[in-house]
Model the fold of this input.
Amino acid sequence: MKFLIALLLTALLSFVGGLWLPWWEIAGASFIVSVIIPQNSRKCFFAGFVGIFLEWGILSWWIDFKNNSILSQKIAQILPLGGSSYLLIFTTAIIGGIVGGLSALTASYLRPASK
Amino acid sequence: MRVIPFFSWLILTVAIIIGLDKQWGSIPSIGKFLSPQHGFWQNADPYDKDFGGDLKFPQLLDSVNVYTDERMVPHVFATNDHDAYFIQGYVHAKFRLWQMEFEVYAAGGRISELIGEKAVNFDREKRRLGMVYAAEKSVAEMEKDPVTKNEADAYTAGVNAYIDNLKESELPIEYKLLSYKPEHWTNLKTALFLKYMSLDLAGHENDFEYTNVRNFLGISTFEKMYPYGQDSLDPIVPEGTEFPPPGMNVKFPSNVDSVYFMKTDSSEAILENKPDRENGSNNWAVSGKKTRSGKPILCNDPHLGLNLPSLWFEMQIHTPKFNAYGASFPAAPGIVIGFNDSCAFGFTNAERDVRDYYEIRFRDSTMKEYLFNGKWIETSFRYDTIKVKGGSDFIDTVAYTLFGPVMYDRKFTGNRTAGTKYYAVRWKAHDASNELKTFYLLDHAKNYDDYYAAIQNLHTPGQNCIFASKMGDIAIWDQGEFPAKWRRQGDFIMPGLDSSYAWQGTIPQQENPHLVNPDRGYVSSANQFPADPKKYPYYLGGYFPPYRGLIINKVLSNMVNITIDSMERLQTNNFNEFAAMAVPLILRNLDPDSLDANERDYLDTLKKWNFFNDANEAGATVFVLTWESFENVVWSDELGKCKGPTTFPESSTLLESILKDSTFEFLDNINTPKKETLRDDILAAFRKSTVSLKSLDIEKKLSWEKFKDTRISHLARLAPFSSMHLNVGGGLNCINAATADHGPSWRMIVELTDTTNAFGIYPGGQSGNPGSRYYDDFVDDWSKGKYYKLWVMNKSDFNDFKVKYKMSFGK
Done:
């Protein structure tokens, strides 16, 4: 339960932060959630990772869906990801997830080791 | 706190974030670029994006409404001209900001700022040609006139209103890819854009190549290979028209024979990077007596480089003073090719050579003084700072003489000259002029006199300005400020030691070739000679392709009861007049018995061909490759004797020469003891071409559209943002002049009935955003030769179903 709340809060906080702050606010959001919801380091990492993975993944998927994949197919040729929109959405989510997860993991070490 | 793991992970996390935030060479910040709330995803416009909205700008005098229709064409309704131009600037920026700025960067030699070192030579060339110098003079002229100053100021303010309200996440995607931000717009940028068009349309010359040929082969051979005039001539002003004696008498310099024509001293070799000479166009207007409706019809299709985003942006501007519809240039105010409630107007390129070179003698390599009329004159210098991405600034010192900037010297050869001589460029586009006024007055024109007054402002690039009005007038003026030259002046590099080789003056405006309401009932131009060179009292230097003009005039002279439909068919016609003249000659001189079975197959394809460059025709491919190989066989031996760059004589010259004389002296290969004949050359050429034909055949690329491979490239050459491999016929010498990357950039047909009946299309889309469905949505229909009805919206149409979005602008 705690894990789920941490995950969803990470996604929510980073989404709200993204409206005003630079892209790396996702690190800040995961860090804060990891501080206020104490869990062991492994759980903190996954809450941050999955939280941002879902936020970036769902957002880009929704944008892509509304756009009929016009742009993602082109960008996926420039990057290059073989023109695959899904691969581009996945890449987006993974990059975000890694930043979120590592940041949450870092924050978890602010506390003493759990018993 | 667990100190060691905390700091270890912190350092790693921060390092990864910095790594993802940093630009690596040409790769943008990955984190920012992928972020769905910041990066490219924000450019993926929803399919049903709402383009409406309410905006307030204190610069406006009154409220303005913009209605966009199903094709995203904005219809601007303003209560005064100032607000209309402000909103036009805003709308151009909203849809095309990146393109506007990129074109201006290219014009002013600033591409190094975006892509680094590799563009420095490109930029230096633009600076040294004096692009910014020319634009500065032009903006001064533009701002001297209160009408164009207000227009340009309002437009600039509108562009800046958009830029100032742009969030970083909304930046056009190219800014994100190249990691930079838009600057403020200025009137100078508008002027620079117009110079970009001048370079494209009036920057072509062969001076160094011609000089080279003259130096090595002599003037008499040169005159045979590059004659002045043509046999297959149907000029804009019909043959046989008498011209009054010239108002401007041009004299040859006294030493022209020894110093200019007979000079054989080998010049420095130059490989010019020249604007595409396929920048041609067609326009024509037919009078009411030839149309079904009894009203004139005007047609225009300018052939320019095909790019995405398109050079053109379609819109309507309505104020109490004017109501114009047509194609506008994002980067400049006004409608450029279009119509208003009274008349229609368009352009084709005049093709005149208005760019010449003078060899300058400097006192020493500091270039501080140069010899002119027996005296040492002080040079003025212009210091051009070119910013280079990822490198230090490059400062270029350019010497300015009385002729113009020294484009090539010891410090800048562009890998083109040996770097021992100095060449100043005299370009008509350097002279102050106010072309913006032309479009302003045309948009407001009510009748022929207004049109005539409007085009007086068009100096460079010279254009064939076509006109038709609801009052029934049709007219064409070969308009521009053209230097009055003596025969061959400026075809070669000229001596710059004194004023004797300088341009002596300008052809008086009223002596420019023109045709107003002719009995034949039509006026037309397709970049051919504006007048018969044997009759016209001034030298018409330049390149004038004859064939499109021939076929247009042939068809128009026979047409009656003309309708929009028949004009659409003519504008998209793929008949190749040049091939129709050349193929019978090839067939007459090619003996099938001397070919093998495989070669005979291709000969059969050519024999069966109907001379239409239709998309699926293999005959067109066989012809084009055979002719190309024929030109090589004929000219390579002579031109091989010239060290350095040369240019092939015109195809029309070769065809006309052998039609007249099958023993044309250049048919002989001067490198063999044998005396080759026309039959020998054609056989050799055909055999050579079958080698290429065979390999095309194997790749299944023999059909004309596959061989030609028409494409519309993104301005920054990003292939995924381009439209490739279009199924399009036509090509060089066809009215539908769609080549690989050039072609009809805006097809327009306007019938001047009481309610204007107009059709048009361009190969692109209204949005410059590759993530929008409106980015390239016209391309397929353009390829198929379809047209859209141009909807001139009235005040009573605000609730029409065609209105998709409404943007309201208030104070």
Observations:
- The CA atoms of residues 287 and 519 of chain B lie 9 Å apart.
- Residues 81-107 of chain B form the longest helix (27 residues).
